[in-house]
Every structure is written in C-alpha cells, then in structure tokens.
Amino acid sequence: MDQIREDGMQKDHLRWELVSETKLVDDEWIDFRRSEWRFPNGVELGPFYTYHRIDYVVIVCVDEDGNYVCVRQFRQGIGKVTCEFPAGGMEEGEEPLDAAKRELREETGYVSDRWTYLAGIPSNATMADNYAHLFLAQDCRREAPLHLDDTEFVETEIKSGEELDKLIREGAFHQAAHCAGFYMAQRFLD
Length: 190
What we know:
Elements: E1 17-26, E2 31-38, E3 44-52, E4 56-63, E5 68-75, E6 80-84, E7 87-89, H1 96-108, E8 110-111, E9 114-122, E10 131-142, E11 155-159, H2 161-169, H3 176-189
Parallel strand pairs: 4-10
Antiparallel strand pairs: 1-2, 2-3, 4-5, 4-7, 5-6, 5-11, 8-10, 9-10
C-alpha cells in the first residue's frame, strides 16, 4: 500500500523525472512544451505535452438578494456561448484578491466588501501548471459600468442557486473550476 503523508498526498517515490523538454510555442498567451519523462520504475516515455498559462481567478458572486451574478460569453475551446462566473487572468505581480476584485468590476460592474478565499486548484493538473483561485464575493452590488477588454463580449445574467445547481447537473455550466467554486461556496452560504 502506498504511504500517504499527513496532507493526503502520496510520497515522492511516485514522482516522475524530467528527461528532456522542448518549447514548441512560447508567446504572451501560452508556453506549450513537449517532454520526455522517466517513470519510477526507470522506463522512459514521451512525448507528453504540457502548457504554462497565467493563474486566474473565479468569482462566485452573490448579490444582496442572494442570487448569483454570472456572465455569458463565447468559449472557442468548445465553440459555445457559456454561462459561468466572472473570471479572468491575473496580471504580473497581482495578488489573487486584487485580481478578483478587478475582474468582478470589469466584467459585471459589481463590487463587494465581503470576500472569502475558497481555494487554489490546478486548472488541469495533467497538462497545465496554472491555478484557478476561487473566491466568494457576498452582498455584491452594481456600482460601475462594464470595462471589457477588446476581446471580451460579455453579458451579465442573474441566476438563483436552484437554477445554477440545475445547470451544473445538466452539464450546462461548462467550466469545471466554476462548478467547484459554486459547491465550495455553499458551506459559507448555508
């Protein structure tokens, strides 16, 4: 049986060793790499493909009436307009909470004085090294116009908790980290 550390993680005897790595794409949006790895039993295998992206924030935004502030926007990866929470990339040197406050205001015009950090979770631990920082913003109120980037085409949409739960169960709330944020927020809201 594998030995488990106190924090629940498996010990380093399961760690793979990087043998070689080549950058295939390296620009402002993504750093895409091809790598070869040596497994714990000594066997080498590849190629494996991984990428580096900036960390980002996801804001589970609850307004003063207890409803959720969501955004609708097109996601090119799945080719669909999605319903999701406000979210966005962190700027260099920016703290997660500062990024969350900025993104919430820019994408929705909402602000909050009640913030709870829910978790930092890998966005895709198999292929990427970035994290999603999940926040709960409570008692949100609209105070400003939207301030979208040139590439953002976003509409704000208000949903009840029941509506969001139904969307998630039906597979219609398409972002995994956003779904996790919704359920994590429930322990603070119930």
